[in-house]
Design a protein that fits this description.
Layout (H helix, E strand, L loop, with lengths): L3 E6 L7 E7 L3 E8 L2 E7 L2 E6 L7 E6 L7 E4 L3 E5 L5 E5 L7 E6 L7 E5 L2 E5 L5 E5 L7 E6 L7 E5 L2 E5 L4 E5 L13 H4 L1 E6 L6 E8 L3 E8 L5 E10 L2 E8 L6 E9 L2 E9 L2
Antiparallel strand pairs: 1-2, 3-4, 4-5, 5-6, 7-8, 8-9, 9-10, 11-12, 12-13, 13-14, 15-16, 16-17, 18-19, 19-22, 20-21, 20-23, 23-24
Length: 278
C-alpha cells in the first residue's frame, strides 16, 4: 500500500478535479506547502521535497532522510517542523529546498504525532505525553516551554486564536494557553533527569526489562498502552525515592504488535515504544 502527492483544482469547490500526481514509494502521511514546493512525509522514507511550480507535472527534487519515520509536519517560509515519534520535534532549514538540513531538535518525552507552529511556539501532539509546547525563538536550540497532560493519546493539534484543539484519540480537547504548565527548565533539574531509559530486549518475545530514573521522590505510574491510546497494563504505581529502577514486563496475555510504555510523575511523562513478537 502506498500513494503519493495528489494535486486537486478547487476553483469550483462543487466539482474538484485532479490536475497532478507525484508518486511516493512508501506512504504519503502528511504534507505542507511553501511557495513552489510541497514537503511530503513519506512514512518510512523521510521527507520528499516536490516541486509544484507546474501543478500538472510535480516532481521530486530532493529528500531529507533523518530518522525517516516522520508522522506529521508543518512549515513556514524558512523552516520545516517535524513530529518524529519517540525522537520528538525536529526543525529543518528549508531556505534552500533542494538541500534541506537539520537546524534544531527537542526531545518531547512522548510520541510526537503531529505539530503546528504559532509565532515562536511549536505545539506538538505528543501521544501519551499529551500536548507539548516548545519555544522555537531560536530554531537551532528549541526548548520546552510548557505542556498539558491530556487524558488520552494526542494525535493531532490545531491553533485558532488563543485556543488549542487537540485530537486525543477518543475525544476533542480544547485548551487556552493560560492553562499550560509553563516551567523554566534551568530552574528545574528534574526536566533532564526524569527519564524512561529503555526496555531490553526490544523487540521482545515474552518478557522485557524496563528501566527508568527519578531525580526526586515521586508518586509514579508505569503503564503500557496500545496504539489506540488504551491502557492495557499497569506495570507499577506507587511512591519511590530518587534513583534508578527497573521492572519486568510480562506479555503472556498480550497480542503481538506495537505498544507504548509511559512513565508519569509530578506532571511529567516519558514514553518509549516497544514491539512484541510472538
Amino acid at each position: 500500500m502506498h500513494g503519493g502527492l495528489l494535486i486537486i483544482d478547487i476553483t469550483d469547490p462543487t466539482n474538484p478535479q485532479e490536475v497532478g500526481f507525484c508518486d511516493a514509494p512508501r506512504i504519503a502521511w502528511d504534507v505542507a506547502v511553501v511557495g513552489d514546493y510541497a514537503y511530503v512525509a513519506d512514512f518510512g522514507r523521510g521527507i520528499s521535497v516536490i516541486s509544484i511550480s507546474n501543478p500538472e507535472s510535480p516532481e521530486e527534487v530532493s529528500r531529507y532522510d533523518g530518522s525517516v519515520w516522520y508522522e506529521g509536519l508543518c512549515a513556514d517560509d524558512e523552516y520545516l517542523y517535524l513530529a518524529d515519534g519517540e525522537e520528538g520535534l525536529r526543525i529543518i532549514d528549508i531556505s534552500d529546498p533542494e538541500n534541506p538540513s537539520e537546524e534544531g531538535y527537542c526531545y518531547t518525552h512522548g510520541w510526537a504525532s503531529n505539530v503546528t507552529v504559532d509565532g515562536n511556539y511549536a505545539y506538538v501532539a505528543d501521544g501519551t505525553g499529551g500536548l507539548f509546547v516548545a519555544d522555537v525563538t531560536n530554531r537551532g536550540r528549541p526548548r520546552r516551554a510548557g505542556y498539558f497532560d491530556t487524558p488520552g493519546f494526542a494525535t493531532n493539534v490545531s491553533i485558532v486564536g488563543d485556543l488549542v484543539y487537540v485530537a486525543d484519540k477518543t475525544s476533542l480537547e480544547i485548551y487556552r494557553n493560560t492553562l499550560l504548565n509553563v516551567e523554566n527548565d534551568a530552574k528545574d533539574p528534574s526536566v533532564r533527569e526524569f527519564k524512561l531509559l529503555f526496555a531490553h530486549p526490544n523487540p521482545f518475545n515474552s518478557t522485557s526489562t524496563v528501566k527508568y530514573s527519578l531525580s526526586t521522590a515521586s508518586h509514579i505510574s508505569l503503564e503500557l498502552y496500545n496504539p489506540l491510546g488504551q491502557r492495557v497494563m499497569m506495570l507499577y504505581e506507587g511512591q519511590q525515592q530518587s534513583g534508578n529502577y527497573s521492572t519486568i514486563l510480562i506479555a503472556d496475555d498480550l497480542l503481538s504488535g506495537l505498544y507504548f510504555i509511559k512513565l508519569s510523575a509530578n506532571y511529567q511523562s516519558s514514553t518509549k515504544k516497544i514491539i512484541l513478537i510472538k
